[in-house]
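re: that chain from earlier
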Amino acid sequence: MAAQTSSQQSATKATFFPLWSRGCALEGNDMKLGFHPPRTWTAIFSAVSRLGLRTLVLTIFTLALVNITFAIAMSWSAPDFDNSLTGPPMVRQAAAAARLMDELGAETRPFALAALNSPLLQFSLRERFDDTPPVENPAPVFVPVISMYQAVLGDRPFSVYQRSEGRPGLLRRAKLSDDIIIVMRLADGTGLTISSGEDYRRLVGSYSVTLFVGILSVILIGLMTWASLSYARPLEHLARASRTFVESANNAARLEPLPETGPRPVRELASALNLAVTRIARAITEQTTTLAAIAHDLRTYLTRLRMRSEFIGDAVQREKIAKDIEDMSRLIDDTLLLGEAAHRTLAFTRVDLTQWLDEFVAGRAEVGDAVHAETPLTAITAEIAAPELTRVLNNLVDNALRYAGSASIAVSLLDPETVAIDVVDKGPGVPADFVAEMTSPFTRIEGSRSRDTGGAGLGLAIAKALLQQVGGGLSLSNRDDGGFRARVTLSVSPPDEPLGDA
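^ sequence. v structure.
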C-alpha cells in the first residue's frame, strides 16, 4: 500500500494537459500536413548564386554534410511509435500491464507495480479512472500515438495527457514522446497510469539535442553565407570597375571612384585602385597638355620653315622641302589627335545611316577615289558622332585605296542594338600574325613610315581610339576569298554618358 500511495501522490502532484480520451471523434487521419518554405529562401538562394565558384561549392558541400549528419542522427533518435524505446510508453507492455492488474487483487497489485517499475517506465494506480470530457481535434502530432493505443487496447477506455513542467513550447514539441502519459481504466473502475522515467527522458532528450544541433548548423551556414557575401559584393564591384578601366583606360579622368566599403582588405584594394586611376588620369592629362604645347610650338617653326623655303631658288628642292614640311605637319596633327581622342567633345545626331554612307561615298567619288557603297534598301537609323565617324572611315578607306586601289563599304544590322560598317578591299591582305598589332600606334608592315609607302602608322590607332569614344569598336581580319576587311561596330543609341570631356 505504501508503494501505491506514493505513486498516487506523485501522480496527483503532476499537472497534465488532456490531449484525447476515448469517446472523441478521431479525425486526425484526414488531416494533411505540409511544409511551405518561407519566401526568404528565394532571396538566400539568389544571394548565394552571386558568390564565387569556390565559395559556392564550399557552401553547398558544408550544407550537404550537415544535412547528412543531421539525417543520420535523426534516424537514430527519432521516435519509432511501434517498438522503440524512444517512442511513447510501450503500447504492448501497457496493454499487458492493464490485463495483469485486472487479474490481481488490491492486496497484490502494489507488488506487481514494484516489479513493473523501472528507470524507463513508471506505473502507478489511481483510485478511479477520471472520465474527463474528451478533447476535440487533438494536435496532429499526437494522432499516431492515439491510433496505436486505440488499436491495441480495443474497448478499454483510456486517456492521453501531456506533461506540463514549464518547458518552452518548442522543446515540449521536440520531447513529444516523454511528455505523454497514458491512463487506462481497469475492470474495477480504478486507473492505471504509465509515464516515462528519468532514464527514458534522457534517452529521448537526444532528439532535442539533435534538433538543436541542426538549427545551430543552419545558423552557422547562414553566417558563413553572409560573410562570403560581404566579401563577394565589394569584389564584384571591383571586378566591374577594373573591366571598365581596362576598356576605357584613356578616360580615367571620367571614371567615378570606387566606394571604399566592405572588409578591410577589400577597402584597401579599392583605395589602391582609386589611387592608381587618379595617377593615371593625371598622367594622361599631363601627356595631352604636353602634346598640345609641343604641337603648337612645332607649327610655329614649321610655318617659318615654309615661308623660308619660298626663297630657295631650286624649284625641285623647294618642292621637296615643302612636301617634307607638309608630312611633318600631318604627323603632328595625327599624333595630337590620337592623344586628344579621349577628351573630345562629342555631338551625336540621329541620321539614316544608309543615306549618310551614300553621301560619304559620293564625296569620295567626286575626288576620283574608287569607292562604292553596298547599302540595304531599308533605312537604318542610328545616333552617330558624325565628325569622328567620318575621320574613322576616311582612315580605313585611305588604307584600302593605298594597298588595293579600291574600297567597298557595306552596312548591316547585327542585332536590334548594333550596326556594322564593313570597309572591304581586294588587296593582298596582311600576315595573320600581324593583324592584332595593326591598331598599335606607329605600327606598319613596311617600316619606313614614309607617306609614299603608307604614312607613320597612326591611322588605325586613331580610328580605334575615336570608336572607343563613341561607344563602338574596330575589328580587322583577312577575307577568305582574298583581301582585307575592317569592321566598325556602333550602338544604335549613344552611350548613356559621353566619354569625352564636356
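The chain has 14 helices and twelve strands.
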